[in-house]
């Protein structure tokens, strides 16, 4: 009888050891899932930072564009005044002087047009970069959430089967 009790206790000890081993492997797997989740969260956080930076850049570009538009309006008003002044001076100047004024005016206008063009290019680039980062952020977020969902579903299925 004592031998049977010892055998039963040995069997119980062995089954408990097996159960503890299974539980330890489940704990290890859960820790692995946690590590993966934290890595995904870190990646999402980095993309959010990049998105914020792109939005700041876009805002700065927009402010520069508005400043340039204001400057262009001011220049247009100044140019209009220059035209009025040039017409008044037309009576007193020769054709050569008028052509010089005209060339100077065209040069100024070309410089302003180039500035506007450059700022518009900068604005489009920053908007494009912002939209690209938003799309990448959404894709990574979607993938991370889908992986997390799948992992949780697997874990739930494993727990149900046990």
Description:
- With 162 residues, the protein is mainly alpha-helical.
- The protein has helices spanning 2-90, 95-161.
- Helix 1 runs antiparallel to helix 2 (95-161).
- It is rod-shaped, with a radius of gyration of 37 Å.
- It starts with a helix and ends with a helix.
- The mean pLDDT is 87.
Q: What are the key terms here?
A:
single chain; 162 residues; mainly alpha; rod-shaped
In summary, what is this structure?
The protein has 162 residues and is an all-alpha fold.
Q: Kindly estimate the percentage of residues that lie in beta strands according to DSSP.
A: under 5%
- Can you give the mean pLDDT? 87
Overall geometry comes to: rod-shaped
What count of helical segments does DSSP give?
2
Please outline the helices and strands.
Elements: H1 2-90, H2 95-161
Helix pairs in contact: 1-2
